[in-house]
Write a structure and sequence with these properties.
alpha+beta, Jelly Rolls, four-stranded antiparallel beta sheet
C-alpha cells in the first residue's frame, strides 16, 4: 500500500467515525423526552451543536453565581439542586438546566448549584451553538424549552400548594 493509499484509508476511517459519533449523538437525543416535540429532521442540526458530557457522582455541573453560557439536558441520571446551600430540587432524565440563557438578551449568572447524585449523562449546548441554529430547528427547540419551563412551573405550583396546606 502506498503512502497516499494509507492516508486516504486513514481519512476514510476518520470520516466514518465522525459519522458514527454524529449518529450516536442524534440517537441519544431522540430517546430523551425533552426532545420529543422536535421532528427528527429538525433535531439533526440541534444534535450537531451538542456535546455529550459524562459526570460522576459528586461532580458539580453548575455553580451558583457562575456565568450561564451552557444549557444541559439530562439524558441519564439525577442531580440535586442547591440554592444558598439548601436543597431545592432534583433534576432527572429528560429535564434541563440553564434554559434561561435561551431567552435572555443579557448575560445571566447561575441561580443554583447542581451536583450529580450518580453518573449523569447530559447533552450540553453552548450559547454559541444556539446562535448557529436557524429556522425550524430554532423554533422547535424554543417549543421544547417552553414546554420544559411549563413543567417546571407546574412543579413549583404543586410545591406551593403543599406548603399552603
Amino acid at each position: 500500500m502506498s503512502e497516499l493509499d494509507a492516508i486516504q484509508a486513514s481519512l476514510a476511517s476518520f470520516t466514518k467515525r465522525l459519522d458514527e459519533v454524529a449518529t450516536d449523538r442524534f440517537n441519544e437525543l431522540r430517546k430523551c423526552s425533552f426532545f420529543d416535540p422536535i421532528p427528527s429532521e429538525y433535531l439533526k442540526p440541534i444534535s450537531e451543536q451538542t456535546e455529550t458530557r459524562i459526570f460522576s457522582a459528586g461532580d458539580c455541573l453548575t455553580a451558583e453565581g457562575d456565568d450561564m453560557n451552557t444549557f444541559f439536558v439530562f439524558l441519564f441520571g439525577t442531580a440535586t439542586v442547591y440554592h444558598n446551600k439548601k436543597v431545592v430540587g432534583k433534576i432527572r432524565s429528560g429535564e434541563c438546566i440553564g434554559e434561561g440563557m435561551f431567552f435572555a438578551n443579557e448575560n445571566l449568572s447561575r441561580s443554583a448549584t447542581v451536583i450529580a447524585d450518580n453518573q449523569v449523562i447530559a447533552a450540553e449546548i453552548k450559547k454559541t451553538g444556539i446562535d448557529k441554529l436557524h429556522g425550524e430547528s430554532k423554533a422547535y427547540l424554543d417549543k421544547a424549552l417552553l414546554l420544559a419551563l411549563f413543567k417546571k412551573l407546574q412543579g413549583a405550583n404543586r410545591k406551593i400548594e403543599e406548603l399552603l396546606r
